[in-house]
Amino acid sequence: MARHRIGGCPGLTESAAAALDGKGPDEALCVVWESVRGEDLASRLAVVRATGHPAAGKLARALTGFTASGVPRSISQGVQLKVTLRHVKPAIWHSVRLPVIATLGDLHQVIQLLFGWDGDHLHAFQVGRRTYSDPFFTLEGSTPGSSPTGMPSDCRPPWFPTR
Fold first, then answer.
1. Which of 34, 37, 89, 150 has the fewest other C-beta atoms within 10 Å?
2. Listed residues 42, 58, 74: the one ending a domain
3. Are residues 84 and 17 in the same domain?
C-alpha cells in the first residue's frame, strides 16, 4: 500500500480526506492548513495534488469551492485570551489573540514567549473540570491518575484528552 505524505507526515492526506467526509470542508481546510507549508491555499493544494492520493483532486475541489463561498472559516477566526499567573500579587497577566484552531500545545508555546520562560517548569491547563498536563510528571497537590491528561504525539495536535 502506498504511503502518501503531506508536510513530511504520512497519512495526512487521508486525514484531510476523512475530515472532509466526516465533519466537512472547514475541518478538512484546518487539517491541510496546519499540515502543509505554503504561502496560500493554492500552494498548499498543489502539495496535496502532488501526493497522488486518490482523494487529492476531490479534496482540492471541495476546499477551493468552500473558500470561494465566503462562509466563515475556522482558520480565519480568533479568540482573545487573558493569561494570568495564579498566586502572584500583584496580578501579572498578558492578553493574546490566537486562532480558534490553536491547540493547548500552541498555547503553551505562546505563554512561554509572553512571559519569557524557557519551558523548564511543570504546567497544567484546566478546562472546566478537566486537567491537561504532562502525563509523566505529577504536579504539586495532585496524584497520578487523579485527572485526565494529555499526551504529545507526532502528526496529532500536541495535547489531546486520554479519556
1. 89
2. 74
3. no
75 or 56, which is more confident: 56
Residues 81, 159, single domain; the answer is yes
How big is the CA angle at 108 (ends 148 and 83), to the nearest 5 degrees?
A: 100
Same domain for 51 and 87?
no
The C-alpha angle 47, 151, 133, rounded to 5 degrees, equals 125
Question: What's the length of the chain?
Answer: 163
Please state whether the predicted TM-score (pTM) of the whole model is above 0.90. no
Tracing cell 495536535 back to the chain, one arrives at 157
Q: What CA–CA distance (Å, rounded) separates 21 from 30? A: 14
In one-letter notation, the amino acid at residue 67 is T
Q: Tens digit of pLDDT for each residue in 85-94? A: 888 899 999 9
